[in-house]
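Lecture notes, part 5. Sequence design as translation. It can be helpful to think of inverse folding as translation between two languages: the language of shapes and the language of residues. The source text, in structure tokens, appears below.
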């Protein structure tokens, strides 16, 4: 193998390829980055045995071939080299890849050729075009509700499914006490998705989020994988699909539409600022904020045995039968920060029932949060004895 390529044209792809290479694995073949010289192209391939990355870049190929090297080591070297043309040459006699640039010369040991396993190609069926920045935003709005326990079955996965027959798509995450749903329209994608939807493990969606840019992307599916390709066809990342059964979340969403539900309208910014201050008074044992509800006023209060107490009054519009409800402060603050709407509506289904949060400038976006069970607590100052 012999090729010349400009460092600045491939370094971004090399870093993406190296990002999915395991750093601590004892299996040397998984640490390998494979470089293929073919038809005036430099093709990069890497995998962690689940994620698969392929990048294709222009190069001057004198001799075609395939070579595997320690991916992170190779990328660290090129990242430190100056911009300009780099020559890669396979030296069969010494069993090394020679990297040359001007008067610089480096030799890297190569991987055993039998370790190479071809990656799954992008399916031939017509792909679906989507916006990379929209998918980024969809992941940001839902993935925080996906459980981070790899053994959590479907609750450790992002769920994407067609919703009805009008081109609507549901993207959702659920971890047992929080649920996020983003509904969007895409006729072509809705028709291509399997009726039961697809499940993507959280840790692989995180890597997809890192890989995405604002540019257009192409999506395709197989029975076991999701394929995401850059709009120019240069790079492709594929993720394994999970086969778990996702819970039916429509039942608790319907509770938000019942006549018995209470409605609270608040200013997002005012509430976030107040919660941030009340968070100072939370402790590991007392990590909640109490909402005391009136027709035109919302009273927020928090206390901790070692931190003291705090309360703030906010303007609000409320209608309903619930007079008091308790939320985990940090979780609610994190949820509210996901919205862009200045005005938010909290739909309360009970003191211990799910609360749905929506905003008029966040169409199709709903987050559900479970309140905390209210309990009467007594606090004593230092040195005070119980009566």
């Amino acid at each position: 193998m012999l090729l010349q390529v400009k460092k600045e044209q491939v370094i971004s792809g090399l870093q993406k390829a190296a990002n999915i290479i395991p750093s601590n694995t004892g299996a040397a073949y998984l640490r390998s980055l494979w470089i293929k010289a073919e038809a005036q192209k430099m093709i990069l391939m890497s995998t962690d045995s689940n994620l698969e990355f392929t990048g294709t870049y222009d190069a001057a190929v004198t001799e075609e071939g395939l070579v595997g090297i320690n991916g992170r080591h190779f990328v660290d070297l090129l990242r430190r080299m100056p911009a300009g043309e780099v020559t890669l040459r396979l030296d069969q006699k010494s069993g090394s890849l020679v990297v040359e640039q001007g008067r610089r010369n480096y030799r890297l040991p190569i991987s055993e050729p039998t370790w190479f396993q071809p990656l799954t190609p992008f399916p031939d069926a017509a792909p679906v075009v989507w916006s990379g920045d929209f998918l980024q935003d969809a992941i940001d709005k839902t993935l925080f509700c996906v459980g981070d326990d790899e053994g959590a079955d479907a609750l450790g996965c992002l769920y994407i499914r067609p919703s009805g027959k009008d081109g609507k798509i549901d993207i959702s995450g659920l971890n047992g006490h929080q649920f996020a749903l983003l509904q969007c329209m895409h006729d072509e994608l809705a028709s291509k998705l399997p009726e039961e939807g697809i499940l993507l493990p959280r840790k692989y969606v995180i890597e997809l989020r890192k890989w995405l840019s604002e540019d257009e992307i192409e999506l395709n599916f197989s029975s076991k994988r999701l394929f995401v390709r850059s709009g120019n066809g240069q790079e492709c990342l594929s993720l394994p699909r999970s086969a778990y059964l996702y819970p039916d979340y429509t039942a608790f969403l319907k509770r938000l539409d019942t006549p018995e539900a209470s409605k609270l309208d608040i200013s997002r910014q005012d509430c976030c600022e107040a919660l941030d201050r009340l968070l100072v008074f939370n402790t590991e044992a007392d990590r909640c904020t109490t909402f005391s509800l009136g027709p035109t006023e919302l009273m927020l209060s928090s206390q901790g045995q070692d931190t003291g107490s705090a309360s703030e009054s906010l303007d609000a519009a409320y209608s309903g039968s619930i007079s008091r409800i308790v939320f985990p402060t940090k979780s609610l603050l994190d949820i509210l920060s996901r919205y862009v709407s200045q005005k938010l509506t909290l739909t309360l289904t009970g003191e211990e029932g799910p609360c749905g949060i929506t905003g008029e400038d966040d169409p199709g976006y709903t987050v559900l949060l479970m309140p905390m069970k209210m309990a009467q607590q007594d606090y004593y100052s230092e040195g005070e004895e119980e009566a």
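The translated text above is only one of many valid answers, since several sequences can fold into similar shapes. The longest strand covers residues 178-185.
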